[in-house]
Request: fold
Amino acid sequence: MQRTPPPPSDTLLVTSRFHVVRVARHLPDGTIKHREVVRHPGAVTILPLVAPTHVCLIRNFRVAVNQWLIELPAGTLEAGEDPRHTAARELQEETGFRAGRLEPLHTFYLSPGILDERMHLFLATELTPGPAARERGEEIENLVTPWEEALRMVQDGGIQDAKTIVGLLYYDRLRRVL
Reply:
């Protein structure tokens, strides 16, 4: 799916991972509406199946919400990087696992009301364990979980991270259909 180029904008903030712009949208009635938008290079999230009945989630401390969240491993695309390469790199960095097979499942937006981040979901199978190579300051722990327990955590609110909810429920639906 081809993305439409963004409308002209004024830059408000630039950081190492994203920038914030003010976009002017011309409405059909002739008025102009301004909206602040976070521009992000995109990211990947990986659903690592350790076995057909177990998934490797992570416990990750998220400063933005000041709490530990249970998530699928994920990471930001580097400039010009292929999402499949990012997925392989982030899986190894965050969990230590290397995937013998990495299959694209879906692409989606996390919060399109304010953010243009496009998330690429991959299924990782034929995993080989190894040492993680977490970035300095990352607070991450592996949490290998039975599949049905992961789904229970989505249902009971133990998993609150959107990309993880999407990834688990989407793949569960695929498993049931296939």
